[in-house]
Structures are given as structure tokens and as C-alpha cells.
Design goal:
With 340 residues, the chain is of the alpha/beta class. It folds into two domains: 3-117 and 300-336, Nucleotidyltransferase, domain 5 (2-Layer Sandwich), CATH 3.30.420; 125-293, ATPase, nucleotide binding domain (Nucleotidyltransferase, domain 5, 2-Layer Sandwich), CATH 3.30.420.40. The protein contains eleven helices and ten strands. A hairpin with a 4-residue loop joins strand 1 (3-8) and strand 2 (13-20). Bound molecules: 5'-O-[(R)-(carboxyoxy)(hydroxy)phosphoryl]adenosine (KG4) and zinc ion (ZN). The site of 5'-O-[(R)-(carboxyoxy)(hydroxy)phosphoryl]adenosine (KG4) has 19 residues, from helix 6 and helix 7.
Length: 340
């Protein structure tokens, strides 16, 4: 089981990669649909599915060429089985399963968040189990304890909006393009500290859960109370980013204290945020723990993390060839734990 093709199509990125169990990542490619969804202010699921159909096979050919291998050399095909948009997931699942069937090799459904939380291991072999993972994407905000591949315990999660959603919705209120997270972060660079103060919901709730919907309402109130000139927008962006990052940092520290662990993994798109990275690095040097980030290109959705998660699973489990597939638009990562 050495050569694995990974396919990601859970949302608005078509990601394909080939991973070799001994030689590592051989090639990967990504097509982002951001420009296509931009004019609608968010992801349009039907358009996303159609675009995955258009892009997937050319990307698979491209990656195989780059890796210098033929499809016949593949030993397994991994695809994102969930969570995500059902139509988009179905594109990846059906292509992966039919290709695997034609090649008579296993097709492996991977949990998208498992891909994210194992992705720092792709580039940093000094990370060892157990660790705490902060999963911060457009749809999820969770703190997990990771004791090994397939051994995940949920410590806390958002009760409403995800951190990425808080970034995106606040960005929209500030008139920024979708996806708003990186745009808001850019605007925040021009913002002045201390001009606005936004609430830090549930920061001291005594547990590891999050809530971000109140923050969005507070941003809405600010945008209504002030004339939105360039500087004011930047100041609001600054305050928004500061509030989200402070809550994420405080809760991550609390998770490390509660479990006594000293390694923190940041996974998911919001992990690309430079202010979050700076705050976590500072907290790490003060409190004596290590923070691990995936390489920037593997922070957001990609096929490499799916191929890699499958490679780790294959080291532990024999996979049967079963080409019946069902996608899981909602999927609890803990249900996915397996015993050895
Ligand atoms: O993990 P991801 O690529 O897709 C999902 O599985 O959701 O995460 C996307 C999220 C979006 O909400 C996006 O705005 C946010 O990650 N994001 C950022 C940054 N880059 C991406 N948020 C804040 N700062 C960034 N630099
Ligand atoms: Zn993701």
C-alpha cells in the first residue's frame, strides 16, 4: 500500500495529491473556486459540484504526470467522505470509487477533519502523539485530544458559528469579498489597537466550548453606529480579529492545562491567520508548550492531507475493496474512532 491518490472535494476546492508511504508527498494540485463563488458572496453548492466534475479528472492526470507515475501504479484511492456539501462530496466519492474499481484497488473514505488535524505531520516529524488539536475551519471550531490515528476525543466545540464563519460574516459586514477571513486579516493590518472593543464570548465559561454568533451581532452594531470610512473599517477588522484570536488562544491554553499535554496542533483554514500564529507562539514560549502548524498551502482544504490520512490509516488497518459509497455531509469525528 505505498502509492495513494488523495481526492478532496468537500466544499469549494478541488484538491488532488499523490502520496508515497516511504517517499512522502510526490505531487499535489489544487483548483480553488473562490473567484466563481465570489460574485454570490458565498459558496453556491450546485455550482461547486459542477466545477468539481469539470476539474477533477484533468487534475488527477496532472498530478500523476508530476509524480511520474501511471494510474496503474496506484495502490489505493482516498477521498473525502464527509463532512461537507453532499453534492460536492459525491463528485469526489464517485470518481474515487469508480477509478478504484477499475484498477481493482481499495477506495478509502476519509473524514475531512481527520485530514486537517493530521496535516502538520506531513511536514514535521517531531510532532508525536498525544497532542491537542485546534480545528478552525469555515464550518468547524473544535478542540480535540488526539491520542493516535483514529483516537480522537472531543474536548469542546462551538455552540453556534465557527471561527471561520465569524471571520467571513464580519468581513461581509465590512464589505469585503468572500471568503472574508484572509481579506479581513489584510484589512486588520491597517487597523489601530484600542479603537474598538468587541466581546470575547465564553472566554471564561469554565469549559472548552466556544460561541461566535454574538460577536457577529456586535460587529453589525458597530457597522451601523459608525460611518464606515477606510480607517474605521480597518479598526473594526482589527478588533474582530483580536477578539476571535484571543478566545481561540485562551481556550487552547485551557485545553493544554486541563490535559497536561504540551503539544498543540492548529489545523483548518483559520490556522493560516498570522495574528493567531503570533499570539499562539507567544503563549507557547511563555507557557512552555510547542505549537505545530501545517505548511500554509496545507492549512486550507487540499488533497495531500486526505492521501496522508489514508496512508496513516493503512499502516494500522487492512482496507477491504468495497466500492459502494455513501457520503456523510454531517459526520462526528469521534464516531470514526477505531480500535486496533
Ligand atoms: O479549512 P478551510 O479551508 O475550509 C473548510 O473546511 O471550511 O477553512 C476555510 C475558512 C474560511 O472561513 C476562511 O475565511 C478562513 O478559513 N481563513 C482565514 C484565513 N485564511 C482562511 N481566516 C482568517 N485569516 C486567514 N488568513
Ligand atoms: Zn477544511
Amino acid at each position: 500500500m505505498k502509492l495513494i491518490l488523495g481526492i478532496e472535494s468537500s466544499c469549494d476546492e478541488t484538491g488532488v495529491a499523490i502520496y508515497h508511504a516511504e517517499r512522502g508527498l510526490l505531487a499535489h494540485a489544487l483548483h480553488t473556486q473562490v473567484a466563481m463563488h465570489n460574485e454570490y458572496g458565498g459558496v453556491v453548492p450546485e455550482l461547486a459540484s459542477r466545477d468539481h466534475i469539470r476539474r477533477m479528472l484533468p487534475l488527477i492526470r496532472l498530478v500523476a504526470d508530476e509524480a511520474g507515475c501511471r494510474l496503474q501504479h496506484l495502490n489505493a484511492i482516498a477521498y473525502t467522505q464527509g463532512p461537507g456539501l453532499s453534492g460536492a462530496l459525491l463528485v469526489g466519492a464517485s470518481i474515487a470509487c469508480s477509478l478504484a474499481y477499475s484498477l481493482n484497488i481499495p477506495a478509502i473514505g476519509i473524514h475531512h477533519l481527520e485530514g486537517h488535524l493530521l496535516s502538520p505531520l506531513l511536514s514535521d516529524s517531531t510532532l508525536k502523539f498525544p497532542f491537542i488539536a485546534l480545528l478552525v475551519s469555515g464550518g468547524h471550531t473544535q478542540l480535540m485530544r488526539v491520542d493516535g490515528v483514529g483516537k480522537y476525543t472531543l474536548l469542546g466545540e462551538t455552540l453556534d458559528d465557527a471561527a471561520g464563519e465569524a471571520f467571513d460574516k464580519s468581513a461581509k459586514l465590512l464589505g469585503l469579498c468572500y471568503p472574508g477571513g484572509p481579506e479581513l486579516a489584510k484589512l486588520a493590518n491597517q487597523g489601530r489597537p484600542g479603537h474598538f472593543h468587541l466581546p470575547r464570548p465564553m472566554q471564561h465559561s469554565g469549559n472548552l466550548d466556544f460561541s461566535f454568533s454574538g460577536l457577529k451581532t456586535a460587529v453589525l452594531t458597530l457597522t451601523r453606529q459608525h460611518t464606515l470610512d477606510e480607517q474605521t473599517r480597518a479598526d473594526i477588522a482589527y478588533a474582530t480579529q483580536e477578539a476571535i484570536v484571543e478566545v481561540l488562544t485562551t481556550k487552547s491554553l485551557a485545553a493544554l492545562k486541563q490535559t497536561g499535554l504540551n503539544q498543540l496542533v492548529i489545523a483548518g483554514g483559520v490556522g493560516a491567520n498570522q495574528h493567531l500564529r503570533a499570539q499562539l507562539n507567544e503563549a507557547a514560549s511563555k507557557n512552555g508548550f510547542r505549537v505545530f502548524y501545517p505548511d500554509l498551502e496545507f492549512c486550507t482544504d487540499n488533497g495531500a492531507m486526505i492521501a496522508f490520512a489514508a496512508a496513516l490509516r493503512l499502516q494500522k488497518q487492512e482496507m477491504k475493496s468495497d466500492y459502494r459509497f455513501n457520503v456523510r455531509p454531517r459526520w462526528d469525528l469521534q464516531q470514526f474512532n477505531y480500535s486496533e
